[in-house]
Every structure is written in structure tokens, then in C-alpha cells.
Amino acid sequence: MKDIFDNVQFGDLKLNSRIVRTGTWETETSEGGFLTPDIYDRYEKIASSGTGLIVSEMFALDHKDRFYPYSTNMNYRGFIKDYQMVTDIAHKYDVPIFGQLAFFYYDDGENQKVEANDIAQEGIRKLQAEVIMAAKKFSFAGFDGIQINMGNNFYLSRFMNPYFNQRDDKYGGNTENRVRISAEIIKVIKKTMDIHVSCRINPWDARKDGMTADESIAIAKELEKAGADSIQLTARTISQIYDKGEKHPFLVYVEKLIDAVDIPVVLGGSLRDMKTINDVLNSSTVEYISMSKPFVAQADFLADWKANGEGVSVCQSCNNCYSKKTSTCFKF
Q1: Which of 270, 150, 288 is nearest to 220 (CA)?
Q2: How would CATH label the architecture of 8-323?
Q3: What would the pLDDT profile of 192-248 be if each residue is shown by its tens digit?
Q4: Which InterPro entries match (predicted)?
Q5: Other CB atoms closer than 10 Å to residue 115's CB: what's the count?
Q6: Residues with Cβ < 8 Å from 106, sequence gap 6 or more?
């Protein structure tokens, strides 16, 4: 029987549980970007409570990015010192931690919001260099890996999606070409740094002529071939894992993906209680579960679950923390 709090292997990393905490927004930094005591306290609670792996709040590349005001900053003078303290907190409890990079727009030097069809190859090289430099900064700050958000509607997800990308060069057309921009980044990071590379992807796209589930699996295989160490699922919209007592399509998809790749796959979704999570673990090939908003509502809820052998998150899935772009819960 699998259990949330099993000690498990995650690629080259050892986890104290199957739960991956995934961050979203960061709105509690001081003026200038420096971290406040509340942020250190939050990470202490998350790391000490039984979390297996921590994925940080989102970092943006550019101060002009759409979500920059709600993201954490890696371009201020105290970044390395501040985040060495954060990663030290995680490592004190033997919890690996990744820095999450997510950018919606990209400024190629000529257009602040250049899209996949319009960015020149010189701009692609500039983008790739900036992502690689972000990975190097994470490495300097003590992060065990980088998670590149290629899901939701972020820039690289649009680049990989045939709905947005109709290029006729080596960065457009078939799956391999649309993934090439990301694959080349991964290859350089893996060649030059000793860090885990996690890719966050969508299972499908609801738009007509958008990415299908089969295409998403093909994308994951290309990312694995390039050197990605793990895949984490997200989506533009994620509904409940269970629907009227039958397997939800999202859960059906993840089992197909797990069968298709030889690297860890993390399932995300609106899972809020220990019983349901353990049911998913024991009725499927899923090994790792990502949770986000429950950690906003109560950063150390896993400690109660572990002590009691059961539990339900106080998070009511109101989505205000996400929609209002804040790292605090409006109710709790």
C-alpha cells in the first residue's frame, strides 16, 4: 500500500513524502524585493511539516512581465543571500527545493510582448540565455533544481502549442520543432550545471486546433529526450480528479503519460484530503502529488495529517489567492 508519507526516490533526489508543494504568487517581499521574516517562517512551516519537495513561488524574468508585481524577484542585489537562507531552511529538514521560473511575455529587445510567430532566432537565443542564467542563479542560491513553467498560458507553453505557433523554420511545425526552444535550454543546463530540471506542462488545450493529449505526451517525451528530470502537470483549468465516482480524464491522462516516459511525473489537481490522495495513489500508477493552495491556507497542515493519520485541508478552493494574485489566504 502506498501512503502520502512514504520515503520515495524522485530521480536522484530522496523525498520524505510524496507531496510536492508548488508555489504560486509572492506578494510579501519588502520594498526592493528583499524577503520578509514572514516568508522565512512560511518556508520553515512547509519544510518541517512533512513536505517531500518544495517548488518555490514563481520567479519572472523581466520587470515588465504581466505577472511581475505578483512574482518573486531574482534581480535584486540580495537575491543570492536571501534565497540561500530559504534553501538552507529546506535542507535543514532534508527537503529538496526547486526555483520556479514562469514568464508570460518576452521582450526580445524590439518588442516587449513578442510572440512565438514573430520572435527572430536572435531573440530566441537571447531568451534561452536568460533562462539558462536564471538556472545558474538558482544554483548559486542553493536550489536543487529549476522548474520551468511550460504550462498554463505561460510563454513556453504557447510556443509549444500549435494553436499559437505557426512558424515555418526549425522552431515551428512538428512537435520536435515546437519543443526545440525548450529542449535546447534543457540540454545546456544539464551539460553545465548539476541541478534537477523539472518541466511543468499542460495535459491538453481546450482550444480548437490546440494541443491534444497525445500531442502533450509527445511533448513530454521530447523534453525527456533533451534531459528533463521530471514532469509536473498543470492546466489552464483543472477540475476535480473524481467525477461521479469514475476516473476523471485528467487521471486517465496521467497514467498514459507515466507509461510513456521513464522520469517521475507529478500529478497536480484539486486534491484536498488525505483519504482521496491515498485512494489515487493506490488505484493508479501515480507516485507524487502536487498541492498549492492548501499550503496558502495553512503552511504546516501536513504535520496534522501525519500525526492523525487523516486530514482535510482547510482550503475551500475559493481561488481568491490565485485570482487576486496574493500569497496569503483571504479566509484563514
Answers
A1: 150
A2: Alpha-Beta Barrel (3.20)
A3: 999 999 999 999 887 888 889 999 999 999 999 999 999 999 865 544 444 555 666
A4: Aldolase_TIM, NADH_flavin_oxidoreductase, OxRdtase_FMN_N
A5: 14
A6: 61, 62, 113, 114, 119, 123, 127, 155
47-71 tens-digit pLDDT: 999 999 999 999 999 989 998 888 8
Q: In degrees, to the nearest 5, what angle opens at C-alpha 209 toward C-alphas 207 and 210? A: 55
Among candidates 58, 49, 29, which has minimal Cα distance to 322? 58
User: So where are the chain's domains?
Assistant: 8-323
Q: Kindly report the number of other CB atoms within 10 A of residue 318's CB atom.
A: 13
305 contact partners, CB below 8 Å, separation of at least 6: 4, 50, 274, 311
